[in-house]
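Notes from the pairing session

We agreed to fold both candidates in a single pass and log them together. This is the raw record for the first candidate, unedited. Please don't reformat it; downstream parsing expects exactly this layout.

Candidate A
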Amino acid sequence: MTQDQNQVNFLNTAHGSKIAWSGWQPREDENITIVFFPGHGSDMDGTKAIAAADWARENGYGMMRFDYSGHGQSSGDMMDGTIGQWRDDALAVIDHLTTGKLVLVGSSLGGWLMVLAARARPDRIAGMIGIAAAPDFTDDLIWDDLTPDQQAAMARDGQIALRNPYSPEDVIYPYQLITEGRNHFVLRDRMATPYPVRLLHGMDDEEVPWQTAEKLAASFDVHDINTILVEGAGHRFSEPDQIDILLANLGEVTLAASKT
């Protein structure tokens, strides 16, 4: 694995995606790699991903950043993507590009995919940190908020355009993202997590309500979990003081993971 933090490499997966990634192995006296799962429409060069990478390098941990198919520098069209495909992208990265223990960090959509990856590779996981995690958002935060007329139109047209809080251009969600996402819900049953879990969420998040963090926490059977609700923080959770909170919790989780 490359040791150049800025070098972008590509992984050709068995399911057809060409995944862009950047990362390095942990220092010899460490056995922990941090894997960052970005949000929907984001990429591995976001503020939180870079901050986590800088922190990992300074502290001797391995790091893995990557783009889902249809995102960033990876192949594909985001409109063709599904939760299952993006989960498979993440698992391919984990299986082929990392070794040892993993601490997963997932932002928004990445928080959902992080949980799916942890369920699929339980023996590899040593900790999880969610940042405005959005499990099951395709139904809970999109479909269920549509009127019956909007639902019918989305099924008929194959997509729907909704307001984008960060841009004058609407966000377009394809219908298959909704229907396929129902195969991957994680809030409907419980999951054993015998490792530390931290869930960071802004109380001013207008996209994913902070109560989602409490629902996700309640779905875990875990001995070490902390839900941290931050006043004044929005969905992006990328202001300097919020990055400080992320890095402090990353320090807690990696320290606990290194002792197991």
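Candidate B (folded immediately after A)
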Amino acid sequence: MVTGARVPLTVDLTGMRVAITAGAGGIGRVMADSFAACGAELFVSDVDAASLAGCPHPHMRADAGVAADCEAFVDAAVAHLGGLDVLVNNAGIAGPTALVEEVTPEALDATLRIDLASMFHCARRAIPALRAAGGGAIINLSSAAGRFGFPLRAPYSAAKWGVVGFTKSLSIELGPDGVRVNAILPGPVDGPRIRAVIAAKAKAAGISENEMTERTVATTSLRSFVTQQDIANMALYLASPFGATISGQAIAVDADMQYTM
């Protein structure tokens, strides 16, 4: 359901100092590889030991659901890179797929901590370094769930709507310091996470995974998933000089998603 391989954006980011949460696998790894290919210097975190073991970029283990880990990661990134120009808040989980009355308090708390609060903790710690650099960029990963209602995904949707509000508020606070803050709202990104969500929703609806996949793709006018590279390309654009006057925006990269189920 993806219309061909995507070409990485090519832009000169030589010397740019970039920290990415959950940057050893999935979308984060594609973003890290893409920034590195453009000349940026990287430091990434991840909670997954297997992903970290195969990560070629400087890294540390950190749990985005733990505030102290978020702060330790940013401090380590600044120390390793000698400063900071870009923070990419990429860490997130899918959260539970269930009716609201069936969601446990523990599942709600975990989703909000990892998908929303982690961005607050990382940004809070990174702001002094970004100011010291004379400006920079914070890129927060929201979701199409941050502009639509997502039945059976209420904790995730609530967190991603929160990311948009946080992004807009922070952009106003940091604009005078030359720090741009934007959110990327991916649509259904082809990969293990969306496949797991589709499987869970198919089971809840009593239909096959193939049928649920078709229904998901049908929510977009391009009748397509998006790719991890699509998301990485937008992050590169926003961090680059091309995005010099873009701030406070919630930018959808979603194959023109029109509705949700």
